[in-house]
Amino acid sequence: MAANELTRNHVHRIAEDSARSSFFLIVGSILSTVISAVSTILIGRFLGPELYGQYALALAVPQLLFLFADIGINHGLIKFSASLRSKGETSQLIPLIKHGLVFKVLIGLIISAANFAFSGYFASYLLNRPDLEPYIRIASISIIFQVIATTATSSFVGLDKAQYNALTTNLQAIGKVVISLALVLLGLGVAGAVTGYVVGYLIASIAGIALLFAVLRGHAKKEAHFMQDLKTLTNYGLPLYVSVLLTGLVIPYQNLILGLFTSDADVGYFKAAANFLTLITVLSIPITTALLPAFSKLDSTTRSKIKDFFKLANKYTSLLILPSTLIMIVFSRDIVLIVYGSAFETASLYLSTQMILYFLVGIGYLTIASFFNGLGETRLVLRTTIVNFIIFLILTPILTQSYGALGLIAAFLASNTVGSAYGFFLARARFDVEFARMAIIKIYVASLASAIPALLLLYASPFPRLINVAAGAILYLLTYVTIIPMLKAITFYELETLALVLKGIRPLNKITKPLLDYEKRILKYVGQTSEETQGKPMS
Predict the structure, then answer these.
(1) Could you read off the pLDDT of 191-215 as tens digits, one per residue?
(2) What is the pLDDT of residues 293-306, one digit of tens each?
(3) Is 218 helix (H, G, I), strand (E, B) or coil?
(4) Which DSSP string corresponds to 283-304?
(5) Per-residue buried b or exposed e for 7-27, using 16+ beta carbons within 10 Å of the residue's own CB
(6) CA–CA separation, 222 and 406 (whole Å)
(7) N or C, which end of the chain has less CB nearby within 10 Å?
């Protein structure tokens, strides 16, 4: 019993650290996403579908080449910064981060120069649009600044300084929105929008480096060799790098296939829909990023801790992501019309179809990779990514040529479904982990059932779209938080765990405490007591 209590307390501490990091990452992501969304919406409106498609394609090549500037260094910095701090070996932090940064800057300079030199070739032969050459040349400068900014923000996550990650990300978004809009309004069109993209990362790189030096200033420094630190990071990160590279190739590959088989306007519709996915990634990326250092603090030899925390992480992630997904699907058409106007109405079909991806959250879509990476099993991540990528690589041109953008989305959904299922198979075989199956099923049921009142409101209400979307979203969430405890998809133990985890985050605690109390009252009403779930952390 004492051992179980010790394991439970350890899981609580890790969950609390993870929740704190997630809070700052989510808040930072929300702010930066709102800022970027305003910029994207206005740029899309001012440029129109065709020019907005050109803007998206101009960034495709630099975004593709940027992927080659990292060989797992960023994930290595998150992993080892967290584990070294956990072991009290902080004297190794400064040289490790410094050497990782220096190496990435050197690679970034080479790639940025190559992009600049071969921009004409990329425009003519990769995109089949020679007129995009000057825009690609401008965008090439962003690579080096993006390398510096992302290295700094990754270090902040590993150092449990996620608030600086949020600050740097928001400075990038602000810089981008101010410069892009100003230049577009001055009549510079696509060139102005691309220039704003570059300046945003310039600002973020300067801020990131300044904050990183400030954080590390008080730490003792241990002598270390450049090659030794690089070997440490790459031994962990090299398999992960291939995985990240293949994953990162998806979006540029999508852009290239769309450029070959669809019009500029279709590319604009697709990218406009994809922009709304950031509303979900505001929640998903901070969760997966914070879970990496959280899993890194677990002892891979203690299976009970691993199984408990994996089950807890996957269930809480599903509780958060699934209702957000259904809200976006239900109101996809109204949201697109409100934000972009009738010229982009086609984007609503692409949006609702793309959102189906997040239905995979229940089978570990957002937790499996962080789980493997945190435990150092990066080769397992590589195996799942290869399976995912090969299926996507084969299906994408076939389905896109036949069905356009919808075919591309279908290929993406098929590859991720197979990849997620294979990842869970590996996790179960290696670590004997399980999902909270009945609870996950109940979360799906609650998410789908909660859409019914919102749909009725949507089709019966005579009010304007903006009011319908706001009222419908509130109605959906109220229905959802009522159905979840009625179905006993969450237990007293888990509500108490959440309350304990969130207690140290005052702004979040003030918002969630009434909600948790409300759900506890419903649990009592349906006949579940705290004693009934004592010792049963997960359903």
Answers:
(1) 999 999 999 999 999 998 888 888 7
(2) 455 555 554 666 67
(3) coil
(4) HHHHHHHHHHHHHHTS-TT-HH
(5) bbebbeebbbbbbbbbbbbbb
(6) 54
(7) N
Mean pLDDT in residue range 78-94? 67
First-to-last alpha carbon distance for the chain, in angstroms, is: 19
Query: Own/partner pairs for 246-252, CB < 8 Å, 24+ apart?
Result: 246/385, 246/386, 246/388, 246/389, 247/385, 247/388, 247/389, 248/64, 248/67, 249/64, 249/67, 249/389, 250/389, 250/392, 250/412, 251/60, 251/63, 252/60, 252/61, 252/63, 252/64, 252/67
Q: Which domain holds residue 381?
A: 2-435
- pLDDT attached to residue 54: 87
- Does any domain span residue 530? no
For the segment 335-359, the average pLDDT, to the nearest whole number, is 88
Render pLDDT for 10-52 as a digit per residue (tens, 0 to 9): 444 554 554 554 555 556 556 766 777 677 777 877 887 788 8
Please calculate the CA angle 67-162-210 and round it to the nearest 5 degrees: 75
Q: Are 241 and 378 in contact (CB under 8 A)?
A: no
The proportion of the chain whose per-residue pLDDT surpasses 70, expressed as a percent, equals: 76
Secondary structure (3-state) at 400:
helix
C-alpha–C-alpha distance, residues 420 and 256, integer Å:
25
Q: How many CB atoms lie within 10 A of CB 217?
A: 8
Is 450 in a helix, a strand, or coil? coil
Classify residue 221 by its DSSP letter.
-
Helical spans, DSSP H, in 67-141: 73-87, 93-117, 119-121, 133-140
DSSP 341: -
Amino acid at site 419: G
**Domains held by the chain: number:** 1
* Type of residue found at 259: G
Q: Is residue 335 a contact partner of residue 328, using CB atoms and an 8 Å limit?
A: yes
Asked, for residue 269, whether it belongs to a domain, the answer is yes
With 70 as the cut, is the pLDDT of residue 290 above it? no
pLDDT of 33: 65
Closest CA to 362 of 427, 329, 327, 316: 316
The tens digit of pLDDT for each residue in 367-386 reads 887 778 777 777 788 888 88
Report yes or no on 257 lying in a domain.
yes
